[in-house]
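Repro:
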Amino acid sequence: MKFLKILLLLLIIFSLYLCAYPVLHNDLGYNTDIARDFLILQDIVNTHKLTLIGPRTGGIDGLFHGPLWPWINLPAFIVGHGNPVATGWFWIFLITCSVFATYYVGKKLFNEYVGLLSGLLMVIMSVQYSSSLLNPFGAILFSPLFFYFFYKYIKLEKIKFLLLA
């Protein structure tokens, strides 16, 4: 069983390397959605006003994403002076945090093996998104914590867990 733990941990580390590979080689996808997000971030930096609505959704007039994703990316944008690669490194950091959060949730709800396997699945899924900085991926990064706090609310019926979810 110790071999399985080590194998899963090594696979997680290797997959994190695969996530970082495009950033290491300055090879990030920069499509129209990403450019739009960076323009929103640049506008926030220039005007010193946080936006209360996020970017427009593609295809449905009058429907917008929430503002949380630009707010999360703003510190990396400022520190990196608008460089997408600096923001890419921040995304790798977020992916790593989400892997640890997924491991933690799996371990708390089930056991260490489920935690490691869940973390591995999260990082493998993240490999395809890490090169293109897509904004819907932010929801996936925070999903494990949402489910954990919602589960805690169901079990303990304490309102603080519902608010955290």
